[in-house]
Amino acid sequence: MRTTSNPAFRNLPSGQGGYATFDRQGGGMMGGGAAYADSRASRAEFGRAGASERPLTVDDVVIKTAITGGVALVAGILTAWSGLFGLALPAIIVGFVVSLIVIFKQSTNPFLVLLYSASMGVALGALTGALEFSGTNFQGIGFQAIVGTAGVFVGMLIVYKTGAVRVTPRFTKWLIGASIGVVLLMLANMVMSFFTIGGLGLRDGSPLAYLFSIVCIGVAAFSLMLDFDMADRAVKEGAPAKFAWYIAFGLMTTLVWLYIEILRLLSYLRQE
């Protein structure tokens, strides 16, 4: 069984047989505790839960993912249209706090998941709106970023379903390593920006910044394949239906990252 670079998809239990293998070795990008599969008590608990709940289906995942994505999209459009760009920072803080609660508590509470989606929708809408109103060169960039994100999502889903690229243990380890490397470079660039103009040059619109954005988009896109694989396994292992909300949250976190990177790359291209 494989792990994933998305922290939201770790330790996901099942109603039949303990789908806790999402954290096979108690590790990953964000760390984690022992797997539920290693705990007889946890297996017994979720076994009893599974007896009273219907198992997860693909339709559950699709519907809940569509709802979370729709909430984020509507919130983003309304924020950009209203011009309330100052909501970006508060929304990011709310989204970050809620994401930590959902991840560490493995919450399937629809309210928390939708609150995260709405918060990030407001944040992305505010950032996109501020960018569009900053000059004529950026008008329409939000629509392009949305189309690009949706295109990558559909494309990677097709790649996954057709088996053109298989999610193997080696592929998973490579992608997790790449994700860790990208995050460390982002942090290093942010720290260096406090001491030098432009930091490491990863976000200043230079050729290196172009390359880094493309790499980030690639890593985020292939991370979707791990997310699809985790969701697919949850369905096959008979996880409780309520975990569709948790899976939708995990997919949403990857889509948020993907949108930000696509928007950033488009902003570089619009500056030409």
List the helices and strands and how they pair.
Elements: H1 40-52, H2 58-82, H3 88-105, H4 110-132, H5 141-162, H6 169-193, H7 207-237, H8 244-270
Helix pairs in contact: 2-4, 2-8, 3-4, 4-8, 5-7, 5-8, 6-7, 7-8
Characterise this structure:
It comes from Pseudonocardia halophobica. InterPro entries: BaxI_1-like (IPR010539). The chain crosses the membrane at residues 61-81, 87-104, 111-131, 143-162, 174-197, 209-231, 243-260. Keywords: Membrane, Transmembrane, Transmembrane helix. It is built from eight helices and no strands. The chain has 272 residues and is mostly helical. The chain has one domain.
Task: Give me a quick take on this structure.
The protein has 272 residues and is mostly helical. The protein is 68% helix and 0% strand. The protein is built from 8 helices and no strands.
Q: Average pLDDT across residues?
A: 81
Q: What are the segments in which pLDDT stays under 50 over at least 5 consecutive residues?
A: 11-51
The tally of domains stands at 1
What is the string of SSEs from the N terminus onward?
HHHHHHHH
Strand content: under 5%
Keywords:
single chain; 272 residues; mainly alpha; 8 helices; globular
